[in-house]
TrEMBL record:
Molecular function, one GO term: ATP binding
Protein's name in the database: ABC-type quaternary amine transporter
Uppermost EC category: translocase
Start and end residues of each ABC transporter domain: 2-237
InterPro entries: AAA+_ATPase, ABC_transporter-like_ATP-bd, ABC_transporter-like_CS, P-loop_NTPase
Keyword Nucleotide-binding carried by entry: yes
Keyword terms: ATP-binding, Nucleotide-binding, Transport
Provenance organism: Streptomyces botrytidirepellens
Gene3D superfamilies recorded: P-loop containing nucleotide triphosphate hydrolases
Composition bias, Basic and acidic residues: 345-356
Phylogenetic placement of the source organism: Bacteria, Bacillati, Actinomycetota, Actinomycetes, Kitasatosporales
């Protein structure tokens, strides 16, 4: 959908911001650009909507060379979200969101109706539409920034450190919201961040840049974590590369044992000690230690049931927290399907973690080919 072919950007002062970049960004994916400050991420992003023009090479969107498109028309098909939202301070929230539809000549009523729809889509109360940007929190303003970028339903969304200025809790909420929106909208998203954890959470692909505007590696997060191209990438991914890999691996492949009977005749751990108490619908409610002085009357200890889509990292955490040393597994409706023992979780997590560990040696041996072009 978006393609860079041998693209370079040199500024008049002699700075090379982007150096011979070849990269394909697939339609409907989130591609995250990461790297240290000044490595050319923003320049790369801005070349997509021609806010910066390439010195050489070709950038195309939807198969069309952007230099052949009318810049204003091109930008209307590309949503743009920046840090601190960049809202117009003297316009209401609804009018901010309606900016592009109004430019497109939709008419006031239709543009406002669309803005109201988007306000809801990004999780803001309808009443906030009449307010002004300074009357909203930083996180709410970012949501408005996303709504404004989506207003004309553009196929492409450029996001330049959109969540960089909000606190970690709000940031996580905004990341979750973006993933939820993306599962519905399937935009082609280019997302710039400094934060590798954000990149791993959000990216279908991560492109890592090095100072001087060189793209070093572009790959899906799990592949990047398991096989960094060189020491620079391994270093950028951080010492906890193995744990990050566990956060991306799911429980789906980890076998489970049949769920224990809840009627007092069976136990979950095979010793007869721990019983997993469920509701009438079969939802796990808590662990009961039948060996204690209270026996069958013992108070329930907390259980955090996990689905197949939950991560191995969550499973590891729950296996350590669970008093029974067992992870309760549930289906999409929250109904108990079985249990998995701590040992089995540890064995799977250990195997996955080792994949990241083993490739440390590989990364050290690897000699990156400076002439190689990287495709997503
Ligand atoms: N208009 C300009 N004129 C001259 N040099 C520029 C200009 N814009 C950017 N640069 C330089 O180009 C290089 C890449 O800048 P860019 O903003 O793309 O990096 P970045 O990776 O987005 O950095 P950051 O993470 O700090 O935002 C930097 O060295 C920057 O100083």
């Amino acid at each position: 959908m978006i393609s860079f072919k041998h693209v370079s950007k040199h500024y008049p002062n002699g700075t090379t911001a982007v150096d011979d970049l070849s990269l394909e960004l697939p339609e409907g994916d989130i591609t995250v650009l990461v790297g240290s400050s000044g490595c050319g991420k923003t320049t790369t992003l801005r070349m997509v909507n021609r806010m910066v023009e390439p010195s050489s090479g070709t950038v195309s969107v939807g198969g069309r060379d952007i230099l052949e498109a009318d810049a204003a028309e091109l930008r209307r098909g590309i949503g743009y979200v920046i840090q601190q939202a960049g809202l117009f301070p003297h316009r209401t929230i609804l009018d901010n969101i309606a900016t592009v539809p109004l430019l497109l000549g939709w008419g006031r009523r239709k543009a406002r109706a669309r803005a109201a729809e988007l306000l809801e889509l990004v999780g803001l109360p309808a009443g906030s539409g009449k307010r002004y940007p300074h009357q909203l929190s930083g996180g709410q303003q970012q949501r408005v920034g996303v709504a404004r970028a989506l207003a004309a339903d553009p196929p492409v969304l450029l996001m330049d450190e959109p969540f960089g200025a909000v606190d970690p809790v709000v940031r996580t909420q905004l990341q979750n919201e973006l993933l939820r929106l993306q599962s519905e909208l399937r935009k082609t998203v280019v997302f710039v961040t400094h934060d590798i954890d954000e990149a791993v959470r959000l990216g279908d692909r991560i492109a890592i840049f090095r100072t001087g505007g060189h793209l070093v590696q572009c790959a899906p997060p799990a592949e990047l974590l398991a096989s960094p191209a060189d020491d620079f990438v391994a270093g950028f991914l951080g010492a906890e590369r193995g744990l990050k890999l566990l956060s991306l691996s799911t429980l789906a492949d980890v076998p489970q044992e049949p769920a224990p009977a809840d009627d007092g005749t069976g136990s979950a751990d095979g010793t007869g000690r721990w019983r997993l108490v469920t509701s009438g619908r079969g939802e796990p409610l808590g662990w009961r230690d039948t060996d204690g002085p209270d026996g069958d009357e013992a108070p329930l200890l907390p259980v955090r049931p996990l689905r197949d889509t939950d991560s191995l990292l969550s499973a590891l955490d729950e296996s350590l927290a669970s008093p029974a040393g067992l992870v309760a597994r549930v289906d999409a409706d929250g109904v108990l399907t079985g249990v998995t023992g701590r040992d089995r979780i540890h064995e799977h997590a250990g195997r996955r973690h080792a994949e990241a560990g083993r490739t440390n040696a590989k990364a050290t041996e690897a000699t990156p080919d400076p002439d190689a072009s990287v495709t997503a």
